[in-house]
Input
Amino acid sequence: MGKSELSVRQPIAFAILTKAFESKHLSHAYLFSGKRGSKQRDLAILFAQTLVCPNANPWACEECESCQRVLHGNYADMILIDGSDRTIKKEEILKIQDQFSKTALEGAGKKIYILDPAENATTEALNSLLKFLEEPSGNDTHAILISEQPERLLETIVSRCQNIPFTTSMKDLLEEKLAVMELDPFDERMLRQFVNDPEEIKEVSESDDYQSAVSLFGQFIDEYLAQTFAGELFFQSQVLRGKDPASNRKALAYFLRIGMLFFKDVKYNVDFKNEAWNRRKEAVSRRFDCVKVFMLFNESESKISGNANLGLLIDSILYQLKEVTV
Output
């Protein structure tokens, strides 16, 4: 996504950074905070391009060799750590520190690193990051931390960054785009609560990860309502079926996120516009304390990004689930 569209989609963030570039008063660290799909990474890439673009005025031209290399991840002095489906390790932060403690490799002399999402860093990684933020390697190094849940970061890290808020899409525009996509009403309601971009909502709704999680969660509810032991066995045996840790973490995160939103909507008696899910809603509302289940799933999801043993985490969820039945 280019600067023209970003200036429309995120006018506040774009204006703040435009002023910084015009005045040449850039912070050494930024926190791009906002809902998923708010285009934080796109603006982070544009920010990096602008730092090294020979034609910047004040933003990057997006067309020169330097801009294109940044865009495609081939710029030696830019490091992007993608933790969207895995944890960010301490060793990765130490590698950034080691590389950026040396002279820049590129002619522009600017160095930038992007962590996305920063809250998926381990405690050890966050502590190493804090030390790096406290002792940046000169004025030529800039950090961008992208976060959907900044409350999960260390307060000392947040305090050392300039927060750039990313707002949600304009409601009318979002409604207009979603209307022509003809999504399943249940999927649309679920996804728009944690994805902010209409194109991404459609992409996620069609993904195997999301569809599998919705199907598994629905089956889990049916099994649990029919017989608690059967539901527990289903959760333990069906949600984590692969050997790849990253895939399992992603699968469990989707499962818990869908569950969290489902129980929230049950609490407020939302019409899912789907016979099967409305039937589950009626049964669940009589069986569970929905607020407590929501909190349980929310707390459990936050543990996935760490090094938690997923099997033990599921056992803990099931044990606590028994305590929130009514």
Remarks:
- Residues 245-267 form the longest helix (23 residues).
- The chain has 16 helices and five strands.
- The CA atoms of residues 223 and 230 lie 6 Å apart.
